[in-house]
């Protein structure tokens, strides 16, 4: 993503957030007035919830502004991860709104008050439902378009608000027909749904901050690009580090024939770095090299035999980077280990098995983690 695209993304986030602020301020004002006149705790809570949405939009704007600041000496890879913090704050606000609604609904059950609904009350609630549905779908769609977790969270919250308002309207109609108030009980149900959504959003954002398995489609796309190069026999150890939405840096190893010289490898790595960036937006920050035996013969036999031996274990997922020097009697290879076994134990088992089968060789085994699909 180039500078122009980042600027466009920031403008989209800010414009969408301002639309949410204006809409929610108007809705909050109308709902608060109607709720106080109708003596309805549900409508008043709905108005407060709209004010929390205003705060969410303000946080989203601040987060987008800070995240788009240029890299500096202290943050050479930029400030993109600030957006994850703003997304987490929005999720926390949603969770708090759900808890507050639950507390007030329980109070309403313990100390009930008879509501006083009017036609104007029902009309305003109905308008609020339509406005929130439109706003929620638009904000969420814009968030998905520019990959903004904060906007997606705000849009999802707006859709939940529409459901909340719809439940309030249903309770009002039910009360007018049967003279039985259910709004406090409905408030408990809706508050649980809101809290569940807030917890889910917090978990997603924390996963982004802590770091999670790279997207399988992106990994596959990078591997396919590299495998188009005739010299590359395999792509391994692909690790993608995320520094904010659409800011991904990766490192990997490629397997090349042992006949290539340094100049040829240099040209190849520069070429694939450019291809990967233009086709996926991922920046390759490091390209390591494994060499493979091109003469076949004994080296190829050793590879096949050791690979069969290693992969006989369920926790050994892949063997790569194999190279055997039959003259100097050395063998080296990497093995991808699952999380089902301790690294030290796995290495001890493999080393003993390979060393027993080929005692005349010096064995070097490097463990790799199962970090990509």
CATH class bucket of the largest domain: Mainly Alpha
Strand content: 5-15%
Mean pLDDT: 86
Please tell me how large the radius of gyration is: 29 Å
- Structural category is alpha/beta
Query: If strands are numbered along the chain, what order do they take across the biggest sheet?
Result: 1-2-3
Per CATH, the architecture of the largest domain is Up-down Bundle
How do the helices and strands follow one another from N- to C-terminus? Answer: HHHHHHHEEHEHEEHE
Number of helices: 10
Helix content: 55-70%
Counting DSSP E segments of at least 2 residues, the number of strands comes to: 6
Instruction: Name the shape in a single word.
Output: elongated
Give the termini separation: 24 Å
The major beta sheet can be summarized as:
3 strands, mixed
Uncertain runs are none
Describe this entry's structure for a reader.
The longest helix is centred in the first third of the chain and has 36 residues, at 3-38. The chain has ten helices and six strands; from the N terminus they run αααααααββαβαββαβ. The chain has two domains: 3-210, Cation efflux protein transmembrane domain (Alpha-lytic protease prodomain-like); 216-369, 2-Layer Sandwich (Alpha-Beta Plaits). It is α/β, with parallel strands linked by helices. Helix content is 64%, strand content 15%. A three-stranded mixed β-sheet has the order 1-2-3, covered by helices on one side. The protein has a three-stranded mixed β-sheet with strand order 4-5-6, covered by helices on one side. It has helices at residues 3-38, 41-67, 82-110, 119-146, 149-178, 183-210, 216-227, 262-280, 298-310, 343-357; strands spanning 234-242, 248-257, 283-292, 316-325, 330-337, 362-369. The model has no long low-confidence stretch (mean pLDDT 86). Strand 5 (330-337), helix 10 and strand 6 form a beta-alpha-beta unit. It is elongated, with a radius of gyration of 29 Å.
């Amino acid at each position: 993503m180039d500078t122009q695209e980042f600027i466009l993304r920031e403008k989209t986030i800010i414009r969408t957030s301002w639309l949410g602020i204006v809409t929610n301020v108007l809705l909050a004002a109308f709902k608060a007035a109607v709720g106080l006149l109708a003596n309805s705790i549900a409508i008043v809570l709905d108005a407060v919830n709209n004010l929390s949405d205003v705060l969410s939009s303000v946080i989203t704007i601040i987060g987008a502004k800070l995240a788009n600041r240029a890299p500096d000496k202290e943050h050479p890879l930029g400030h993109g991860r600030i957006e994850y913090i703003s997304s987490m704050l929005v999720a926390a606000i949603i969770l708090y709104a759900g808890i507050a609604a639950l507390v007030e609904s329980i109070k309403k059950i313990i100390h009930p008050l008879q509501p006083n609904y009017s036609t104007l009350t029902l009309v305003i609630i109905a308008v609020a439902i339509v406005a929130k549905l439109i706003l929620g779908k638009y904000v969420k769609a814009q968030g998905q378009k520019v990959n903004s977790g904060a906007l997606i969270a705000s849009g999802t919250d707006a859709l939940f608000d529409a459901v909340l308002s719809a439940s309030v309207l249903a309770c009002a109609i039910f009360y007018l027909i049967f003279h039985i108030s259910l709004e406090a009980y409905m408030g408990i149900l809706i508050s649980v749904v809101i809290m569940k959504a807030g917890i889910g959003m917090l978990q997603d954002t924390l996963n982004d901050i802590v770091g999670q398995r790279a997207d399988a489609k992106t990994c596959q796309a990078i591997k396919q690009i590299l495998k188009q190069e005739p010299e590359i026999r395999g792509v391994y150890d692909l690790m993608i580090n995320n520094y904010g939405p659409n800011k991904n840096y990766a490192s990997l190893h490629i397997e090349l024939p042992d006949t290539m010289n340094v100049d040829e490898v240099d040209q190849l790595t520069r070429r694939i770095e450019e291809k990967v960036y233009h086709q996926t937006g991922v920046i390759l920050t490091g390209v390591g090299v494994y060499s493979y035996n091109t003469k076949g013969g004994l080296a190829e036999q050793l590879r096949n035999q050791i690979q069969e031996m290693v992969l006989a274990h369920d926790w050994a997922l892949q063997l790569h980077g194999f190279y055997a020097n039959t003259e100097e009697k050395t063998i080296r290879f990497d093995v991808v280990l699952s999380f089902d076994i301790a690294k030290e134990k796995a290495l001890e088992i493999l080393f003993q098995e390979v060393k027993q089968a080929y005692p005349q060789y010096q064995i070097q085994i490097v463990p790799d983690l199962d970090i990509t699909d």
